[in-house]
């Protein structure tokens, strides 16, 4: 979604702007408190504290320049700013996985599988050993019974 925001563009890097657009004029924010407050209200930025380096572009004045009659910037450009969106909570979105996360899971599962195979191999060896001992004991028992 896009929100429509009205605000004046305030420049700090005056020299670079004028080099790119020599037809522009940049005006310092007035020191007269009444006029300054009007300009700051029209700039429309919360907690904006301009210093002597801040400038307002001539595009914001009627006729493209500041005059005695039009010494307040009134031409306000419409600036399109994206509005923050809430994260989606659809079933697909919630259950969607990051491919890197999937790789990690696959690597973990492969390690677990290798570990399980090693354990199975060791246990099979233990079972073989026990079966051999069991066979030996059964033979001894049968010999003892014959006596």
UniProtKB/TrEMBL annotation:
<keyword id="KW-0863">Zinc-finger</keyword>
<keyword id="KW-0479">Metal-binding</keyword>
<dbReference type="GO" id="GO:0008270">
    <property type="term" value="F:zinc ion binding"/>
</dbReference>
<dbReference type="InterPro" id="IPR006612">
    <property type="entry name" value="THAP_Znf"/>
</dbReference>
<dbReference type="Pfam" id="PF05485">
    <property type="entry name" value="THAP"/>
</dbReference>
<keyword id="KW-0238">DNA-binding</keyword>
<protein>
    <submittedName>
        <fullName>THAP domain-containing 11</fullName>
    </submittedName>
</protein>
<dbReference type="GO" id="GO:0003677">
    <property type="term" value="F:DNA binding"/>
</dbReference>
<keyword id="KW-0862">Zinc</keyword>
